[in-house]
Amino acid sequence: MSFEDELGEALRQAGEGFAPDRQALVAGGERRGRRLVVRRRAGAIGGSVLGLALIGTAGAFAGGLLGGSGGAGTPNVAAPPALSSAAPPKGVPGSGTGAVTGDQMVAWLKQLLPGGQLTEAKGHGTGDGPGGIPGAYGVYDDGKGKAAIGVGLNRVDPKGASTAEMLTCPDKNKFDYDGCTSEVLADGSKVMVYQGYEYPDRHVPTKSWRATVVTPQGYQVDVQEWNAAAEKDEPVSRPNPPLDPAQLKALALSPLWRPALEDMRPAHPETPRSSPRPGASAAPVLDGLLAGYGIPVVAKGGEGDSAYSVLDDGKGKSMVTVEVQSYWKSGTLDSLFEGATVLPDGTKVVTRQLPGEKGGKNVVWWTVDTMRPNGTRVIVSAFNSKNQESDASRKEPALTMAQLKEMATSDKWAQYAK
């Protein structure tokens, strides 16, 4: 497959993280927009480094990028000049002027790897046209098994909400992965090192490890590796990817990436996000509703309009989720509520019992979807597993459909009324 084909496939896979699946379309999903991508990171993180770099999921680790000391394994190379706050010179449309070529990106990646060989290497420079993503990718072999590895560069709004979210470890209660650390450095730079899997349900044992870092200037570097010769459709070649977390971080913080980062065009500041319901939070409402059923809650989380709890009545864990949405236009989503039961207050209610769609074996998904006359939509769902990626731990969810309906139609959601 050519580099262009690989990149196109990577972008398609990365873009899938933005598109709600059928479950999300039918029942409101887990979160809308960028927040959905973040919380699916355990799965979407397996998308190509280069593809993910384009959508702003990586960073530049300041320890090396700004000339500070690096971590273990940091190459001993001369530091380029200090990063400039000035905008790069104007050039052809794209990510930069072309001061750094794809061949240079590949050469730097080879130089930073601890021995071994990098084959099938491809690279993109800073002037490779509109949408060009500076980076390098190849198959690394240190004698212990071939492994795909890549690096992608980008410019982001360092104060943007999406940047903060992408550098936050996924909720361990909702996603299964082996390890994740997230830290803020003394100069304000942020780094996350993630050890997960290409597929969250692990039906294929391909591991996907990455280091993503962001500086206060908005420079970002993303390094990702697998324990197979390709991220997908290749057999596992070794127990773990070749670089350990410290080495991944060291590769990301190398000052070698600085000329390319400096040549890239600055990111536009993110538009501040406003909430139609300042101060509203779904979590305390969910807590109060569940308390009435007397089932022990062993885990919980969420923020804003989305929350979850994991129940355990001694017969197996069961996740319960709630999503609240607000629609200002009358008639929105009418097609989803065709044939709905209409309550005396005008609330439309639709119930569904479907198989799980996130990979867990024998998982069932029960949901009650409601739309109030004022445009407030409340979706309450329950699963017969601790999260949607895990295999079923019981035959049915801990809550009945009647209880889910009672929760979704509760007047405790009045705080969301406009």
Could you characterize what this model shows?
The structure is a single chain. The chain is of the alpha+beta class and 418 residues long. The protein is built from twelve helices and 14 strands. The strands form two sheets. A seven-stranded antiparallel β-sheet has the order 1-2-3-7-6-5-4. The model is unreliable at 1-64 and 66-94 (pLDDT under 50).
* SSE class: alpha+beta
The proportion of residues forming helix, as a percent range, comes to 10-25%
Total of DSSP H or I helical runs spanning 4+ residues: 12
- What's the shape? elongated
Mean pLDDT rating: 78
Topology overview:
Blueprint: H1 3-16, H2 22-27, H3 34-39, H4 41-44, H5 49-54, H6 62-65, H7 102-112, E1 117-124, E2 135-141, E3 146-155, H8 161-166, E4 179-184, E5 190-197, E6 207-214, E7 219-226, H9 245-253, H10 258-263, H11 282-291, E8 297-303, E9 306-312, E10 317-326, E11 341-342, E12 348-355, E13 364-371, E14 376-383, H12 401-408
Q: What is shown here, in short?
A:
By secondary structure, this protein is an alpha+beta fold. The chain has 2 domains: 3-263, no CATH class; 282-416, Protein Transport Mog1p, Chain A (3-Layer(aba) Sandwich), CATH 3.40.1000.
